[in-house]
Amino acid sequence: MSILSVNNVNKSFAGLKALNQVNLEVEEGSVHAIIGPNGAGKSTLLNCFVGRLIPDTGTVNFLGQSLLGITPHAINQAGVARVFQTPEIFGDLTLLENVKIPTLAKRDGAFSLRAWSRIDQDSLVTDKAEHILEDVGLIEKRDILAGSLSRGDKRRLELAMCLVQDPKLLLLDEPTAGMSRADTNNTIDLLKRIGERGITKIVIEHDMHVVFSLATKVSVLAQGTVIAEGAPEDMKGDPRVQEAYLGGAHL
Amino acid sequence: MTKQPTARNDLLLMAVFTLAILTMPIWAAPFGAGYPDLLQKFAIYGLFAVGFNILFGLTGYLSFGHAAFLGVGSYTAVWSFKLLSMNVIPAVIFGMMTSGLFALLIGYVSLRRSGIYFSILTLAFAQMSYNLAYSVLTPITNGETGLQLAIGDARILDNMFASEAATAIPATNLFGIEMSGYPGFYFCAALLIIGFYIALRITRSPLGTILKAIKSNQNRMNYTGLNTRPYTLTAFVISGMYAGLAGCLLAVTDPLAGAERMQWTASGEVVLMTILGGVGTLLGPVLGAGIIKYFENIFSSYNDQVLHGIFAFLPDPIENVLVAITGLFVGDGWHLTLGALFMVIVIFLPGGVIEGFTRLYSWVRAKVKQDAGGNSVNNGKSQPQSAE
Ligand SMILES: Nc1ncnc2c1ncn2[C@@H]1O[C@H](COP(=O)(O)OP(=O)(O)OP(=O)(O)O)[C@@H](O)[C@H]1O
Ligand SMILES: [Mg+2]
Asked: In the predicted model, what is the mean pLDDT of residues B3-12?
C-alpha cells in the first residue's frame, strides 16, 4: 500500500518549471530515495508535501487524504516530519529544549495551554527527549545552546526532533550533508534502526553510499521530471541516470 | 553550558525578590527615593515591564502600542470607582478584563504580521485609541480634561451600604484602607510580587518554552506541528492584561485617567525599560522600570537654580556655560539624558543591566579564583551562572 501518492504535480517559479508532471508512489515501510543533480527540483517536491508550497496542478495524497491547502502544522500533526536541507533548529534554546518542543507538540497537539507546570518536572517529556538525544549521540551536549553546534550536529539534532515524534512519514533532505564519514555511518545506522520501527522515509541524497545502504527504491529526478525509477541496483547502471548526472555528482 | 534554573533556584529568587520589594521603603530612602509616590511608580511600571517582557522578551514580538492597554486599564478603573465602588478590587478585576479583551482584538489583527509590520500595526492601533479618546469617545473618556471622580458619582455598591450621602469625594480604598501613601505602595507591591511570580511560572512552563521557540525559529515551529498564532495571541493578551493592571494601579493611587497615558511615548518608555534592564530576563524589566522612573524623578526635578547651586564653586562665566549645557539634560529635557543612557546601554551592554551584572559577576569570580592561586582551580563549578 502506498502511504504517499503524488499525481501529475507541476510547479513553476516565474516561468521556471521546477516540477513537471511528477508522479510518485511511496510504499508504506519503504525507504524511498530521490536522487538527481542540483536544481532538479528535489527540495521543491518535498516542499509540496509539507505545506510550504502548493503545486500549481496535480494532487498529493497522504494516507488517502489530500495535503493540498493543509497548514504545515496540521500536516505534521497528521504524521509527517521533515529534516530540512539547511538545518532548522531553535538556535537560542538548549538541545534538550529543542527536542522537548516536538515532544510537546506530539503529546499536547497543535495548541495547548500549559502555563503553570514546570517543564523540567515533566518527566514524561524529559525522559523521551533525553532518550532520543542519547540515540543520536548528543546527550552530553544537552545543556548547550543549539546555535553553537557544528553543522553535522545540527542535522543530527534536527533528526532527533523529527524522530521523537514517531512520524508515519519522515522526509530527509540530505541528512548527511556536512557530516564526516564516521558521522555519516552513524546516521545510516540510526536510520536503519528506526527503519525497524516501521517509519516510512523519503531520503534525498547526493551521497550514493547512503542511498545504496538505505534505499529500497530509487527515483531519479532531473529538470523537474522523474526520468527513472526502480530498485537501487538497477539504477546504478541505468544510462539515463548516468546522463542526468553527467558533470554532476558521482554514481 | 547554560545552567538551567531549578525549582529551588526559583524559590530563592522569589524570596529575595519579595524581600527586596517589601523593604524598598527602607533601602530606597538613602537614594532619595523613599517616599510613597515614587515607590508606587516603581511597582506599577515594574509590573507593566514584566508583562511587556512576556511578549517582547519571551516571544520576540516588539509592540509599540502597549500604552493603549495601560490607558484602557486606567479608564476602566476610574469608571469602576464612579459607578460601582471606591474599593479597588472591582476596579482591578474589570480593568484587567477590559484590557484583556482589547488586547485580544488588537492582537488578533496585529499578529497576522511579524517583525516590523507587527510593530507598526500595534503603534497604529495605539495612536488610533489615543485619538479616539480625544474625539469620538469623549463621553467615555471626558476628552482633554480627563476622566475624574465627582461627589455625585453613582457608586452603586458603596451607596447601598452608606447611611448618608457623601459630602466629599471618597478615597480609593481596599475594604476601608485608603490607597494613598504607603498602603497604596504595599498594594502595588503585592501585585508586583504576584505578577512577577506568574511571569516566572510562565517562563518555566511548557508554554514559556514554546514562546521562546517561536522567538528563535518560527519556521521550525510550523513544521513541528505547533500552531504559532494562538500562542502568540496568548502572550499578547497576557502582556496586555499586565499593562491594564498597571493602568488600574495608576488610577488606584491617583484616581484620574487621561488620554496622554496612551500616547506613543508611553509605549516607547516600556520598550526602553525592558531593553535597559535586559530583554528576556525576569528581573531586567523590573530593574529597567526602576532605573528609568528613578532618573526621571531626579533629573526632571532639577532646574537652573539647582544647577547654579551645584556649580557655584566655579567662576561665574564657566558656571554659566556649564549650567547652560547641563540645563538641556534636566527638567523637561531629561529625555535627552534618557536617550543618551539608552544609547550607551544598547551599544556597550545589549543585554542590559542584567548582562552588566552577569559580566561583573564572572569577572569577580575569575579574579577571586586567580588570587586564590592556580592550584585550586578545580574546586567547585567553573561555569558562570547566568543571572536572571
Ligand atoms: N521559492 C523559490 N522561488 C524561485 N525559485 C525556486 C524556489 N525554490 C526553488 N526554486 C528553483 O527551482 C529549482 C529547483 O530547486 P530545488 O531546490 O528543488 O532543487 P534541488 O533538487 O533540491 O537541488 P539541490 O540538490 O541543490 O538541493 C531551482 O532552479 C531553484 O532555483
Ligand atoms: Mg535541495
From this structure: 87
State chain B's mean pLDDT as an integer: 88
Which residue intervals of chain B are DSSP H helices? 7-22, 24-27, 36-53, 67-83, 88-110, 115-134, 138-141, 156-161, 181-204, 206-216, 218-222, 228-253, 264-277, 284-301, 304-310, 316-327, 334-348, 352-371
pLDDT in tens, A160-180: 999 999 999 999 999 888 788
In this structure, CATH architecture of domain A80-166: 3-Layer(aba) Sandwich (3.40)
Q: What contacts B114, CB < 8 A, 6 or more positions away? A: B61, B218
Length of chain B: 388
| Helix B264-277 × helix B334-348 angle, to 10° | 40
User: What is d(CA B152, CA B141) in angstroms, rounded to the nearest whole number?
Assistant: 17
CA A251 to the chain's CA centroid: 22
Contact A86, A178 (CB under 8 A): no
Q: Smallest Cβ distance to A106: which of B202, B225, B227?
A: B225
Provide DSSP, B228-288.
Answer: HHHHHHHHHHHHHHHHHHHHHHHHHHS-EE-GGGGSHHHHHHHHHHHHHH-TT-SSHHHHH
**SS3 state at A113:** coil
Contact B1 A165 (CB under 8 A): no
- CB-CB contact of B74 with B149 (8 Å): no
Q: Is A76 on the interface with B (CB under 8 A)?
A: yes
pTM of the model: 0.91
Q: How far is CA B4 from the centre of its chain?
A: 26
Give the model's confidence band at A143: pLDDT under 50 very low, under 70 low, under 90 confident, else very high: very high
Atom of ligand 1 nearest to the CA of A221: 21
Is residue B176 within 8 Å of residue B86, measured between CB atoms? no
This model of the complex carries an ipTM of 0.92
C-alpha cell at B141: 473618556
Residue having the nearest C-alpha atom to atom 6 of ligand 1: A13
Return the residue of A nearest to B217 by Cα: A90
Q: How many CB atoms lie under 10 A from the CB of residue A95?
A: 28
Q: Report helix, strand or coil for A210.
A: helix
Determine the residue among A118, A123, A126 to mutate to test chain B binding: the one whose Cβ has the most chain B Cβ atoms within 10 Å: A118
Phi-psi region of B219 (alpha: psi -120 to 50; beta: other; left: phi over 0): alpha
